Amino acid sequence: MKGVEYKGLSSVDGPIVVVKRSEDVSYNEIVYVRDKFGEKKTGRVIDLNTETAVVQIFGSTTGLDLNDTTVEFLDEPMELRVGEGLLGRIFNGLGEPIDGLPPIVSSTKIDVNGMPINPYARVYPRDFIQTGISSIDGMNTLIRGQKLPIFSGNGLPHNKLAAQIIRQAKIRNSDEQFVMVFAGMGIKYDQAQFFIKSFEESGVLSKVVMFQSLADSPSIERIITPRCALTAAEYLAYEKNMHVLVVMTDMTNYCEALREISTTRGEVPGRKGYPGYLYSNLAELYERAGKIKGATGSITQIPILSMPNDDISHPIPDLTGYITEGQIVLDRELSQKGVYPPVSGLPSLSRLMKDGIGDGMTREDHSAVSSQLFAAYSKVKSIRNLAAIIGEEELGKEDRMYLRFGDALEGQFFTQGEYENRSIEETLDLGWKLLKILPQNELYRIKPELIEKYMPKD
């Protein structure tokens, strides 16, 4: 019978407690655990067998006594209260307000353990999102409904880049409302304040919903934070017909919390100690982005993850790359040269770019310019390697042109101000200006009529 409190625990291990189960406990059900002084802690059921239920506590288990602790099963999953007042609010990782304002007044509560979108119900993403950042718009275009992660490293400006995307992202030639949901997992207090201050100063805070699980919050809370954020995004997109951009940082902290729980539960570890279900767990989150048949709204996702030791083959970026449609990779070498944003030209990729650019969407020359910039930059890299061996003075005239082009691409196209918002036309015109450095016979990926039309004459 629900509402009855069960007294006593079988065991306590870190954030995990094991209790004798009642008859009809269900997976992901919310539980109230009270210590002998009556202080309430919230948890959820993460595992069941015939005799016991394993409960994960959101917070510290210090002070829980095996004999005097009581457990109440609530017969309901973790839910997020949503309503009209959602935008402009700041919540903790469990969806509780932390901005000094009262809780949302609404009778609508949604289960945070949402389902990935059914592939049959998906609409193929085709609409271009202008972020105002040349290295993304020009060469790794973001499409509405896409999952495009940012692979970064410790100390690289991924938070600055994420804030800039949130400030500047817009749908071209459309007055449809574009709102943001931000989820911070295990981020430091100063990072959280940076995001709030950045949104306040640019006036976009009223269009942002923030969920913050800070570094000093229980790591277990990080498991719920992205689920709360995506639940809010689904409500805004599919109930309120808005276009939503979800930024989640840092997915590495989320995966660390998952590993911590898995180890505590004594599960057999997979690669580097992460649980074997890391792939399916990440897919559960990433696959909640997209466009659905019959719905006006959409969800676009930008998960940010810091690669441990800048290792792109680490399980977290590796598995993320399998699930998402490309990646924006930040490069430490470019950052050390003073390039911002240090988006690495060659490993970065947007798999949906080809379907969201061109005549009527961006400009007819977009695909050709992007392809030629990639090809030329690839050649720059190999010429730089050669120059490091034989010396730059031994290179031919054409090779030296390529080196000049490479420096100009990094210094002018990749580099832009933190508050510089370039239109796609400005980005493409800048691309043409840089391609003029190269001999025309080297522009083999662009049709002559496009060269004639767009190449600057002076």
UniProtKB/TrEMBL annotation:
Matches recorded under InterPro entries: ATP-synt_VA_C, ATPase_F1/V1/A1_a/bsu_N, ATPase_F1/V1/A1_a/bsu_N_sf, ATPase_F1/V1/A1_a/bsu_nucl-bd, P-loop_NTPase, V-ATPase_su_B/beta
Ranges annotated as spanning the membrane: none
ATP synthase A/B type C-terminal domain mapped to chain residues: 355-454
Keyword flag Zinc-finger: no
Domain ATPase F1/V1/A1 complex alpha/beta subunit N-terminal: start-end pairs: 10-74
Function: Produces ATP from ADP in the presence of a proton gradient across the membrane. The V-type beta chain is a regulatory subunit.
Family of this protein: Belongs to the ATPase alpha/beta chains family.
Protein name: V-type ATP synthase beta chain
Species this chain originates from: Treponema saccharophilum DSM 2985
Lineage: Bacteria, Pseudomonadati, Spirochaetota, Spirochaetia, Spirochaetales
